[in-house]
Write a sequence for this structure.
């Protein structure tokens, strides 16, 4: 049992406490979701439970925390690791062993277990999570879902009674995320251990039952109740967590969310006739705006294939695609399907062997990386990988400076303009280190923007961002898009795709297997399965309300949602 | 994907199957025997052994050519320096002087100097392949466990192994960072710029690399600590294997080589084998 009593915590490096007045009891065998926006203190709370605080982060504790009746003062990270097993966010970064078997064995090695016994124990644990046939593989070679299984096995091998998942869904493709939630659920049923999930992607976690949801904001617990009660309240919206899509749709249709209709899961949803009627009439009432006129093509990709020098297999296979001016396009698909490689080829970062990329009729192959960059800008997922200067203005103006074509004044003007568009103008003379992650992301976008490209490609622009920051970034991109810049987004986020993009290009196993409107992609069962995408709960809601055309239903939802957001 | 400069290459070979500790011990014994002697015959035998072992280990020349060229350049440079600073080293050692021809200024070419430098070159030829074979056939965790076995603290051993393991990752990341900076016009290879400017550009790419490496270190350190790393004074190794007859055979052979190296000291009456007397 884990018990917080009037618990507070302040990092040494900060002037204000990160956690206030935490009173929380998590009983044995419970499954609890701790949810809240970025910076709400949920990770700090997790670090208090697994002992990373105070082991690697120092600060002052007030109040009391007990784990299985023992006070935190008598526990340390090593003692806690026998009770609490932690699966960290980025499974790639946390693999220690070179093979799956070795990685699972890591905790046992540290316990100086005998090699024979260790091998036996590793095999048993691998069996529980279903990775027995991969024991000799390198963990990095596995698919996202299998990686999660391996990291889970690595903590379960210690016979822990509490499993703590710190943002388990970040970096996973939609299907792998779904499989992970199912795996957590079945492991809990099998072993009866306590499960604590820290995550802000509420709807994805709620794919399987949780006993309680603890909602946090500004270092405090603002709600501690079951799923149905939380969904019936307006608390989620208040703290900036995205409600499940079907709940939003029901609210748009004027249905009052109440415990009787079982809002906790789409499959349990029990709508009375009059509510179904409400949804149907809302569906019919949404006005479809006239489709905008098709714009001329800006980028034309013809039969593109590529492979790396020392690999025989293609990593891109015969991809043909036409991108229109002013489009906002999503590239979706499994990890390793070729999405990022495709984007890198467009930017000239990788060389393709077959096919051609035309930009408004000119073959891009004759241009150098630098010259291409003036047409197509690429924003990497991690802004820290792009920033080389210490001051904002210097960083944003670097590209223009190196071109050496413009006068100092002109560069200054262009930089100021880019900073204004990105909402960074008031910070212009700040050092970059003082900015938040999201602001750094904007700096990298601004530095691409002032090169005046026709197309900007962004790799997972919202990864790891909570709903508020996500909305901020996406609305900003939408604004850029309205100014005529074509935007290509590489993403795993189905919500992002349907909310902001008009068209989705689907990659699977080095090939492009789909190129359709987002709603059509998501209502195509075969495509969804092949590319490890996930249907949204809107599809199910459509069938509950006997609306046959689910693609139309999704489309109507998107239109209504855009109007509301405006 | 480009292969790292210096890392483990997974193949199936008898050398890969030896335990890490055996390989480390053999490496130390053989390089030590090559280091103490200047006996051409022994160095020749060691060079042949190193080439044979390289063949057995299925490590191909093209896998390791960058390290090889690097050491080759270093070897040439080293020899040039020896000749420039002590052109008469050979005559001093062997006590005779057989001049072939006069080169320039104070520099004369002698058989003794040539022979001495041949020995230096042979030393490179027998030690470098051993190091290459060891590094490319021993996976980082085995390397760590073998370091631990010869008495180095497992924490130190593990950090060395982790550092080796992350070399390919960091190389990949550097490549990503470098192309994205090239796209902004930061040039590395262009001859249009002065050396100073190019160095400055390379240095500014290190900045994001360091930041992201620090992030990476923090994550891995947390992950390790959460799973009990550093709790006890000792730890066991999942990959550790029992010594087999082939291990013992290799160690015995290496000890014999070292023994031969010492025996030759006695026979030759010093470190040098002298064919000129």
């Amino acid at each position: 049992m884990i018990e917080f009593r009037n618990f507070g915590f302040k990092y040494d490096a900060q002037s204000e406490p990160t956690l206030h007045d935490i009173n929380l009891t998590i009983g044995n065998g419970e499954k609890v979701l701790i949810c809240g926006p970025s910076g709400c203190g949920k990770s700090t709370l997790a670090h208090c439970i697994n002992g990373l605080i105070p082991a690697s982060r120092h600060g002052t504790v007030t109040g009391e925390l007990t784990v299985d009746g023992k006070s935190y003062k008598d526990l340390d990270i090593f003692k806690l690791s026998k009770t609490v097993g932690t699966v960290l966010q980025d499974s790639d970064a946390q693999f220690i062993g070179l093979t799956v078997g070795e990685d699972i064995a890591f905790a046992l090695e540290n316990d100086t277990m005998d090699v024979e016994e260790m091998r036996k124990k590793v095999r048993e644990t691998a069996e529980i999570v279903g990775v027995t046939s991969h024991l000799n593989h390198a963990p990095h070679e596995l698919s996202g879902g299998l990686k999660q299984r391996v990291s889970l096995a690595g903590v379960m091998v210690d016979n822990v009674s509490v499993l703590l998942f710190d943002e388990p869904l970040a970096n996973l493709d939609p299907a792998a995320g779904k499989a992970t939630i199912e795996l957590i659920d079945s492991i809990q049923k099998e072993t009866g251990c306590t499960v604590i999930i820290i995550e802000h992607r509420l709807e994805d976690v709620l794919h399987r039952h949780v006993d309680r949801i603890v909602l946090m904001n500004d270092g405090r617990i603002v709600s501690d109740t079951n799923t149905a009660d939380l969904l019936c309240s307006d608390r989620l919206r208040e703290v900036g967590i995205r409600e499940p899509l079907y709940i939003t749709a029901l609210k748009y249709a004027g249905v009052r969310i109440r415990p009787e209709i079982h809002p906790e899961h789409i499959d349990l949803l029990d709508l009375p006739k009059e509510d179904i009627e409400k949804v149907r009439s809302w569906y019919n009432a949404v006005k479809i705006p006239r489709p905008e006129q098709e714009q001329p093509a800006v980028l034309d990709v013809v039969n593109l294939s590529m492979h790396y020098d020392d690999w025989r297999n293609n990593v891109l296979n015969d991809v043909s695609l036409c991108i229109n001016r002013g489009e906002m396009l999503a590239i979706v698909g499994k990890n390793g399907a070729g999405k990022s490689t495709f984007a890198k080829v467009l930017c000239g970062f990788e060389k393709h062997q077959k096919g051609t990329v035309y930009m408004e009729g000119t073959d891009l192959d004759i241009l150098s990386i630098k010259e291409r960059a003036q047409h197509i800008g690429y924003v990497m997922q991690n802004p820290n990988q792009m920033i080389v200067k210490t001051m904002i203005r210097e960083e944003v103006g670097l590209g223009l400076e190196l071109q050496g074509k413009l006068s100092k004044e002109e560069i200054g003007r262009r930089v100021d303009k880019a900073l204004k568009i990105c909402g960074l103008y008031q910070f212009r003379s700040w050092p970059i280190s003082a900015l938040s992650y999201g602001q750094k992301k904007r700096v990298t976008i601004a530095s691409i923007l002032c090169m005046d490209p026709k197309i900007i490609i962004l790799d997972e622009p919202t990864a790891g961002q909570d709903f508020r920051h996500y909305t901020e970034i996406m609305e900003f991109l939408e604004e850029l898009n309205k100014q005529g810049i074509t935007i290509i987004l590489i993403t795993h986020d189905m919500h992002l795709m349907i909310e902001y993009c008009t068209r989705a290009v689907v990659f699977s196993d080095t090939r492009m297997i789909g190129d359709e409107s987002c709603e059509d992609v998501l209502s195509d069962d075969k495509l969804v399965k092949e590319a490890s995408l996930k249907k949204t709960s809107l599809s199910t809601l459509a069938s509950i309300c006997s609306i046959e055309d689910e693609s139309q239903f999704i489309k109507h939802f998107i239109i209504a949602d855009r109007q509301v957001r405006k | 994907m480009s292969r790292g400069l210096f890392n483990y290459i997974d193949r199936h070979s008898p050398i890969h199957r030896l335990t890490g500790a055996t390989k480390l011990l053999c490496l130390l014994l053989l390089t030590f025997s090559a280091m103490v002697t200047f006996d051409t015959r022994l160095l020749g035998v060691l060079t042949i052994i190193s080439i044979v072992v390289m063949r057995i280990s299925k490590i191909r020349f093209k896998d390791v050519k960058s390290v090889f060229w690097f050491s080759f350049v270093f070897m040439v440079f080293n020899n040039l320096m020896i000749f420039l600073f002590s052109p008469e080293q050979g005559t001093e050692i062997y006590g005779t002087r057989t001049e072939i021809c006069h080169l320039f200024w104070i520099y004369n070419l002698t058989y003794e100097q040539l022979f001495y430098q041949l020995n230096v070159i042979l030393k490179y030829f027998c030690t470098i392949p051993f190091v290459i074979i060891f590094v490319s056939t021993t996976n980082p965790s085995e390397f760590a466990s073998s370091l631990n076995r010869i008495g180095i603290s497992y924490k130190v051993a593990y950090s060395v192994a982790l550092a080796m393991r992350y070399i390919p990752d960091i190389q990949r990341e550097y490549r990503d960072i470098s192309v994205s900076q090239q796209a902004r016009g930061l040039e590395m290879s262009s001859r249009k710029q002065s050396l100073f400017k190019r160095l400055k550009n390379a240095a500014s790419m290190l900045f994001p690399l360091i930041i992201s490496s620090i992030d990476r270190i923090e994550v891995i350190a947390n992950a390790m600590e959460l799973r009990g790393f550093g709790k006890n004074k000792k730890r066991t190794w999942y990959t550790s294997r029992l010594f087999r007859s082939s291990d013992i055979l290799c160690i015995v052979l290496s000890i014999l080589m070292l023994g031969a190296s010492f025996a030759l000291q006695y026979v030759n009456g010093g470190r040098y084998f002298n064919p000129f007397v």
In short: Chain B has ten helices and two strands. Chain B touches chain A through 50 residues (CB under 8 Å). Strands of chain B lie at 99-104, 107-110. Residues 33 and 261 of chain B are 5 Å apart (CA to CA).
